[in-house]
Amino acid sequence: MENRKSFTKKLCVTAVLIALGSVLSLLKVYEMPLGGSVTLLSMLPIVMLPLMYGTAWGLVGAFMYSCVQLMFGIFIDGLLGWGLSLVYVIGAIIFDYLLAYTVLGFAGIFKKMGIVGIILGVVLAMVLRFLSHLISGGIFFASWCDWDNVWFYSFCYNGAYMLPEMIITAFAAVLVFKNPQIKKLYN
């Protein structure tokens, strides 16, 4: 009975954190002129999942979050109306949504190292997300680039919002996981 109760609790916490991350992703602190934005800690609830429940659970939760972000991309951002070919739309779906957000589940990989592990895990997850967006920008959005070097453009474009997101998320994760009530929740 206890195992079932524990699973139900993890499932409910996961659903709440995915919902919270989704709502926070709509609250943009700064939006880039061509897209991409720094949000109000939208990655924090998602990186909390692997930090609380482990990498495997975190990857599943982050994948579910990626599906929500994909729906936002289609219905709010108009992904299907961007004028991309079918192959490029599929590539953008994979690299800008499904893969980019699912890799956030790796944030818990160093959690046994304490605060340093939290920082390393969040940085790793955000770097993997950045690399996914970088690949997408370099391949699928190259035709939109006015620069001579599309990879440098993709690096600058994605780095401009991913670096602040990474710093803010890592800092907030440390503050959250130092809180005794949060520690009690996941220990």
Describe the structure in your own words.
This protein has 187 residues and is mainly alpha-helical. Helices cover 71% and strands 4% of the residues. It contains seven helices and two strands. It has helices spanning 2-25, 44-53, 55-75, 86-102, 115-139, 150-178, 180-186, and strands at residues 28-31, 37-39. Strands 1-2 form a two-stranded antiparallel sheet. A hairpin with a 5-residue loop joins strand 1 (28-31) and strand 2 (37-39). Helix 3 (55-75) runs antiparallel to helix 4 and helix 5 runs antiparallel to helix 6. The longest helix has 29 residues, at 150-178. The chain starts with a helix and ends with a helix. The relative contact order is 0.13.
The largest sheet is: 2 strands, antiparallel
Instruction: Determine the structural class based on helices, strands and strand pairing.
Output: mainly alpha
Model regions low in confidence, pLDDT < 50 over at least 5 residues: none
Sheet-strand content, in percent, reads under 5%
How much helical structure, as a percent, in the residues?
A: over 70%
Overall mean pLDDT? 91
